[in-house]
Amino acid sequence: MHIQNNISLKPYNTFGIDVTAKHFVSVSNINDLKQIISLKEFPEKLVLGGGSNMLLTKDFDGLVIHINFKGIEIISEDDDTVIVKANAGENWHEFVLWCINNDFGGIENLSLIPGNVGTAPIQNIGAYGVELKDSFESCEALSFKTKTFQSFKKSDCNFGYRNSIFKKEAKNKFIITSVNFKLTKNNHKLYINYGAITSQLELMQVTSPTIQDVSKAVISIRESKLPNPKEIGNSGSFFKNPVISKKQFNILTENFKDIPSYPISENEVKVPAGWLIEKAGFKGKQFGNYGVHKNQALVLVNYGNAKGLDILNLSKLIQKTVNRLFDISIETEVNIL
Ligand code: EPU
Fold first, then answer.
1. pLDDT at position 194, please?
2. From the candidates 162, 164, 178, 261, which is the catalytic residue?
């Protein structure tokens, strides 16, 4: 365990923003983590996983703790299901591929989502009709306050759309160290009705899809729509899709006949923020070295050496414009630091 000083966080956030951490430590085992969180000389701490859901807007004056524990193991199994434990520092997509190679089903629709296993429950990652919560069994987390481990069952986590207890009451109070998933060994339940998946499978000429096929289809769709953070800095969807009342939606359809929506409840619908942002004229707009992605308006991008503050200001301009045009507030999905 080696605490370093004045380290650039550029390699540790998928937006590729170059800010400096006054102190930085990469932690690869639980005992070191327990020691680190007890250090009195660093009162301000920031926990970093895959850095895929944050926009860094300034240098960090405290200690950045980079969670780097690896390891995947089978905890138990019966004829139909298996409980797999993955440590927090495992790369999410590599974990998905490990499951697919072992023919364990449940998270294939979540292929190619950037980030690490330990941060995935915080925002209940989701894509193509599936969310992490659907296969989440439990997680272990270390409490900053008591320095002890606590287990969170699914029912403890209050999972919602891009939301969990770790974004609310438990925010900044715990470090998730491992996650247990309940996956299927056979009779996999496939979610392929999400339009783009069905048509992609058709394109691939697959008639009886396996979890491997679904994963491949999702990878193709994501690669065609979303920029690869290794090539263009980004944090996936920058905003959440807003939920509005049916009444407001009906009023909007008078002026915007093609506005898409997904039913949420009897009185509410979800509207794709990407559509609102595109209609507001921002899709593909480039402002020097940052902008809005050309294939998915929900994704803000860093073309190289952009400042976090510039991207933050662009996001505020988008929010203001969408609000003015549609009277809808769109909330950020990424954490701003
Ligand atoms: N749309 C546009 N213009 C755009 C983008 C989207 O008009 O530039 C409209 C289209 O009508 C399209 C609809 O929005 O049919 C939905 O678009 P898409 O299928 O790309 O999904 P999304 O709602 O924009 C959400 C997630 C993504 C996830 C996809 C697929 C959120 C905030 N985002 O996006 O998640 O991959 O569904 O399931 O819920 C992420 O969280 O980082 C992320 C990429």
1. 83
2. 162
Number of separate domains in the chain? 3
Ligand 1 and 127: CB distance under 6 A: yes
Q: Please check whether residues 128 and 178 belong to one and the same domain.
A: yes
Is the shortest distance between the CB of 195 and ligand 1 below 6 Å?
Answer: no
**CATH code of the domain covering residue 172:** 3.30.465.10
Closest residue by CA, ligand 1 atom 5: 274
Unique residue bearing structure tokens 């769709």: 221
State the number of CA atoms in the 13 A half-sphere of 266 facing the CB: 0
> Rounded to whole angstroms, how far apart are CA atoms 139 and 289?
39
Q: What are the pLDDT digits (tens) for 84-104?
A: 999 999 999 999 999 999 999
Residue 317: φ, ψ to 5° = -65, -40
Is 199 noted as a catalytic residue in this protein?
no
